[in-house]
Amino acid sequence: MEAPAGNSNVIDMASRGQGPAHPQVFAEVRGISLRKLGGMLAEVLDRSDDALFDFVQRTKSSNEQQDFFDAMRELRRRRGEVEQRYRDFLAESFAALERRRPLKVNLHAAEGADQGLSLVSADDLEEQLAAEQLAALADRRHAEALRQLELRMAQAVGLPLIDPQSLSLGPTTICGAFRAGLQGLELTIKARLVLYKLFERELIDSLGGLVHDCNQRLHQAGILPAVAPARSVPRRDDGIVRETVGDSRDSGSSAYSPQSTRSSSRQLGAGISSGGSEHPPETIDSIFASVRDLCQAVLEAQRMASGAAAGRGQSADAAPSAPRVTLGERHALSALQSLQNNIPESLLRAVDDPHVSLSSLLKQELLKQAERMQLSEPGAGLVEQDEQALFLVGLLFDVLLSQRSYERPVRQQFVRLTVPYARAAMLDQHLFALKTHPARQLLNSLAEACDGNRGESAAERDMLNRVGGVVDKLVADFNEDIAVFSELESDFRDFLDSHRKRVELAEKRAAEAQKGRERLDEARAMAQMELATLMGARSAPPVLEMFLGRYWTHHLAVVFLREGIEAERYRQARQAGEKLWLALLACEAGKDVPPTLRDELTPVLASSGVTGPGAAEVLDAVEWVLLAVRLGRHEAASSHPLPPAMQNLAPLDNSNEEPAPAPSAPGDVAVATAKAEQAEAAEAEGEDVEPPYAEEDVERIKALNLGAWVEFIGENEESIPAKLSWISPISSRLLFVTRRGMRHCAASPQELATLIKQGKLHLRIGDTAFEYAMSQVLGRLREAVPETKQAV
């Protein structure tokens, strides 16, 4: 833990020894918290034996079985130490908060990790990710209550505010305490992850009640007025619907309260777009108002065009047309339910025909089915709200089907989703307005699992099979109960979270490898600059040039990577090369070779793995060449053969400093790199050359945040989704990874802007599949409005 820089007034008060502003209530909250949090850990340790033994029975590997048995024995033997470290961590956090010097917990820093070049071990990185993910999940599940508690605790101790990572009752501090408790135990990573899973269940289940109790006690003491909690999505467990009161902003447990009554949502999200007390502003889709208005304009224009065409087809003395007949709301839902159980072939054919509009097909099939079921008269239409909902669902899935990053089987699954989503939109059109709507979140999770997934690995195939299972269950079970979406999304999200964890691990590895490559390039460039500074335009006998250009520059690069340019060892390494060069100049002037030169050069050879007889051969050759130069035998010095150690140079052993070679960049990126470099070279020479990119695109790329998604367009116009995973502080290059967390490319903003100009890169507008699709729907509607007006 580290103490953050705080407000100067707070520090002054702390230095005078002032305690909390409300000492009695603070003490009560601390007592409640330490008691309940201690009980939480005790429950985890009580259940650890059974959980670990279950894994012993599941695994067939004798080694893994022994590991789990060893973990059970270690936990029994050192349980007291675990609980003591856990309690001490929490007590220290409360004590620091009481002193008004809150301690900030950093889960990202590995315990005992040095800050050198060495990579974090895979086990440490996986445990770190488990702790970070658990803290983030708990924070999302109880976000609003925790924010209230932060404000109340800040007022209770007399601080202006408390950072979430410094809140003693916050998920970050609790997870840090759990991690500290396990520190020093001889447990394999698999056993540790079992314990983290047990702790996750306890934390998620118990934290809400604990935070609520503390908020209530602080409120009773007159600290801040009560704030109405957000209502969370009802969870369906064991067939029972439980409507819980919580403070969730989680991606799967949202502030949306599904009320499946038609009366609550007849006006396509009316009253939502402007925000209201029922739905926090951050849950509202900002572009929905524009989509709704344009949708209404397009449909109205289409109806007017249809009416005008019908009027032109009638004779002048024909009777006026009868009033428009519409299909009743319940009848429309009944017809859709029938279609849901038997998806029409016309919809399935839309998978392979990009010119087919699902909006038109859905409406046609619905009206045909209503006629077949004798629910409507021929020529009947839909009520305005149902028509809008159907139209938007069709456009939404049209966009999803048009994306080339989804394989054909995935697009078939999306087509099967159109009918249940049409029913959901008719039942509750908040689906388009609220980001937290369970149907919307389910579609986001399914799209994330399928985007770019070609089933190339067992994990990807398992993901696709689970998507198919979710679609099957939704088609079979959805019957006007929106909570089904919440139940399916919650179950699928649990599976997706474990997949994300593996992906995050791969992402961090890719970023560390890219960072290592760039640091190595920087070190080598620094070493070459030192060599050029030393030798200038002069040449030296081949033996000395080989020594300086190969061994000395490598030695400089290694020391630069390990200790930096300001280190004493780097100064010594640089002096070794300088002394060799000065020795050459001295010998040219007829002076003797310095007696300590051999000792100065030995560490340089050791950096390249040249030791023993091989090092002696190289140093003997260096001394012989210097002696020949002193005697004026320059030709002999220049023609002296390289010693065997120099003739048979093996690749340098950079296993500790140099990562594996970077995969070759995609062809389009390589071409863009060449063009950008040519433009920069021409500009440096003063030539007036138009750059191959637009400056506004460069600025757009520089404005991207970590985690932003883009689309690279590969061969055959194939769309490749990629995520911005890391930005180099050395070269400002942006590292993009695939859905599997593997490196796709690393390129500069200018190179990426060149790809945008070539149409080989698209920046996504929305973070999720639904938001991105809605932005595309908005574009299509804007294009359709002028066309429909012209048709009228």
UniProtKB/TrEMBL annotation:
Protein keywords: Coiled coil
Keyword match Cytoplasm: no
Pfam families to which the protein is assigned, alphabetical: DUF1631
Species for this entry: Pseudomarimonas salicorniae
Compositionally biased residues, Acidic residues: 680-694
Signal peptide: none
Ranges annotated as biased composition (Polar residues): 251-267
Name of the protein in its database record: DUF1631 domain-containing protein
Coiled coil spans: 496-523
Biased composition (Basic and acidic residues): 235-250
Region (Disordered) residue spans: 235-283, 637-694
Ranges of Low complexity composition bias in the record: 665-679
